[in-house]
UniProtKB/TrEMBL annotation:
Protein name: Hydroxymethylpyrimidine/phosphomethylpyrimidine kinase
Keywords: ATP-binding, Kinase, Nucleotide-binding, Thiamine biosynthesis, Transferase
Record has Coiled coil as a keyword: no
Annotated EC: 2.7.1.49, 2.7.4.7
Length: 268
């Protein structure tokens, strides 16, 4: 039997199944990476917004990390919602010893506009976690927050992608243009070159969990040993198909459709 590839996500939950850990595990499954998860916060949320958040005790986050890391090797991992500095400190300590690709989705605000990370933790994330990453995947507001720069044009997006790598020490930066108008354009700066990934904008309000799904797809492709550029290119295709067929579920922003990627033959 071919060696099983494994991927880990360290993130918060979404009982409505569209974002966070749930989106990550569904994506790993579709892309044939054995999915594992460490839960940081239980979030009562749905397509309309966040109703309440319960943080997992720090010792329990640490225990979950130890349980997975001590038992099952994985070939790539990602982080999503990490709500506060204490959690970040524990996670940074554990993951700094790992020698596999690390994709950070610097989750700050949900599509609904609800805040998912404490204000003072943003600085810590930038200083302590960002330098550990292979790739960070900010949307426009997150990229602005990480750099302190305003983003208004695609030129600004490219400049900020470079800054995140050169000034703040990320391995690579993928600045996503979901929040811009026109084509859905993302820019990847990998430390030496700028790459552009573009897709036609889909007219939908059902974009709950797109950032989670995209970064999870990239993580899954990396777990299979693909180079970063290929992983992002295929990840972009995966998320575009998932948005194109997004489910009109719930009263707010519906979730992306992971099954559709199977039906359209998006595979490893
Ligand atoms: N309406 C759309 N049509 C096509 N692609 C889109 C659309 N909206 C977002 N995307 C793409 O989806 C990916 C996620 O981008 P986005 O900037 O929305 O991330 P995000 O804000 O982290 O996601 P989320 O909405 O989950 O918070 C990017 O590749 C972006 O270009
Ligand atoms: C636990 C968790 N992590 C991340 C997101 C962001 O996803 P989105 O911005 O698509 O709502 C979320 N809503 N919940």
């Amino acid at each position: 039997m071919k060696q099983v590839k494994c991927a880990l996500t360290i993130a918060g939950t979404d009982p409505s199944g569209g974002a966070g850990i749930h989106a990550d595990l569904k994506t790993f499954q579709e892309l044939k990476s054995y999915g594992m998860s460490v839960i940081t916060s239980v979030v009562a949320q749905n397509t309309t917004g966040v109703q309440s958040i319960h943080h997992i005790p720090l010792e329990m986050i640490e225990q979950q990390l130890d349980s997975v890391i001590s038992d099952i090797p994985f070939q790539a991992f990602k982080t999503g919602m990490i709500a506060n500095i204490d959690m970040m400190r524990i996670i940074a300590n554990k993951v700094s010893k790992l020698e596999v690709p690390y994709v950070m989705d610097p989750v700050m605000v949900a599509t609904s506009g609800d805040t998912l990370i404490e204000e003072n933790a943003r600085n810590f994330l930038r200083k302590q976690l960002l330098p550990l990453t292979t790739l960070v995947t900010p949307n426009i507001p997150e990229a602005e927050y990480l750099t302190g720069e305003k983003i208004e044009t695609v030129h600004d997006m490219k400049q900020v992608a470079e800054l995140i790598v050169k000034k703040f020490g990320a391995g690579a930066a993928l600045v996503k243009g979901g929040h811009m108008e026109g084509e859905a354009i993302d820019f990847l700066y990998d430390g030496s070159a700028m790459h552009t990934f573009s897709a036609k904008r889909i007219d939908t309000k059902n974009t709950h969990g797109t950032g989670c799904t995209y970064s999870a797809a990239i993580t899954a492709y990396l777990s299979h040993g693909l180079p970063l550029y290929e992983a992002v290119k295929l990840g972009k295709h995966f998320v575009t198909v998932a948005i194109k067929h997004a489910f009109p579920l719930g009263a707010g922003h519906g979730p992306t459709n992971h099954w559709a990627t199977r039906e359209e033959g998006v595979r490893i």
